[in-house]
Amino acid sequence: MSIAITLGTQHLFAKALNSAAESLQSSVSARSTSAQSDKAESAPAEKPANTAAKTASDAEAAEGDVADGKYHIKITSVTKSVADHESKPTVAVGLEVTNNQKDKESNIFDYRIQVFQNGVELDSAIYFSEKPEGYDATDMMKEIQPGGTLGFVKGYVLSDETSPVTVKISGTFSGDKFSKEFPLQ
């Protein structure tokens, strides 16, 4: 069993490194020819998040392209959820990831999902018996074929139950990112 896990992990890391090298190579060539376009597109994402209360329609508007346009990621929900395995409060973040690539399956190492509260990154939640609606720990590991979209829910352990959280989505090997602040509902 441990051999299978080791081989599987090595396969994932090899795939990630290959994808990173390709991404870096295409990123360097794309940036040299379209630096002005990248700056114009990323400027709105760099604005500080509005601290006013957000509605469900605001959550739907939190979306963007990352990893040099390889993925379109949409934040579909951010809600206070069930306690984790240590009885700590959690927040469930619903996401949809679309693979914009024409000829490659997705690689989970191409993008990064982070959630912050009070300026500090939150740990991923671990659930045993009770889980947030739609949560499956293996969903985000699934590959997405070109043009396909995968929806999943990811949980994070809250540092307190009232302060808003900020969800940040970024390309692992690129500078593109977007973020949005959400109140706990």
How would you characterize the overall build of this protein?
The chain is an alpha+beta fold and 185 residues long. The chain is built from 2 helices and 8 strands, in the order ααββββββββ. A 4-stranded antiparallel beta sheet has the order 1-2-3-6. A 4-stranded antiparallel beta sheet has the order 5-4-7-8. β1 (63-66) and β2 (71-81) form a beta hairpin. The chain is globular, with a radius of gyration of 17 Å. 27% of the residues are buried.
Q: For the largest beta sheet, what order do the strands appear in spatially? A: 1-2-3-6
Beta-strand level of the residues, as a percent range? 25-35%
Gap between N and C termini? 42 Å
H/E element order? HHEEEEEEEE
Overall, the morphology is globular
Give the low-pLDDT segments: 1-60
Total E-strand runs: 8
Q: What is the arithmetic mean of pLDDT?
A: 77
Structural class: alpha+beta
Question: What share of the residues lie within helices?
Answer: 25-40%
Query: Please, how many helices?
Result: 2
Radius of gyration: 17 Å
Question: Main attributes?
Answer:
single chain, 185 residues, alpha+beta, 4-stranded antiparallel sheet, 8 strands, globular, disordered N terminus
Please outline what is shown here.
This protein is α+β, with helices and mostly antiparallel strands and 185 residues long. It has two helices and eight strands.
Write the layout of secondary structure elements.
Blueprint: H1 2-46, H2 56-61, E1 63-66, E2 71-81, E3 90-99, E4 111-117, E5 120-121, E6 149-157, E7 165-171, E8 177-182
Antiparallel strand pairs: 1-2, 2-3, 3-6, 4-5, 4-7, 7-8
